[in-house]
Amino acid sequence: MKRITLLDVAQHAGVSRATASLVVRGSSLVSTATRASVEASMLELGYVYNLSAARMRASRSRTAGVIIPNLTNPFFAVLLAGIESVLETAGLAVILANSNESAPKQDGFVNRMREHGVDGLIVCPAEGTEQRFIEDAHRWDIPMVQTLRMVPGTSGDYAGMDPDVGMREAIQCLADFGHRRIGYIAADTFHSAHTERLASFHTAMTENGFEPLFVRELQSTHHAARMAAPDIMNRPARPTALVCHNDVLGLGLHRGLSDLGVMPGRDVSLVGFDNVAEADLVRPGLASVATEPFKVGETAARLLLRRIEQPEAEIARTVVPTYFVQRGSCGPLRSAAMTVSA
Question: pTM for the complete prediction?
Answer without folding.
Answer: 0.78
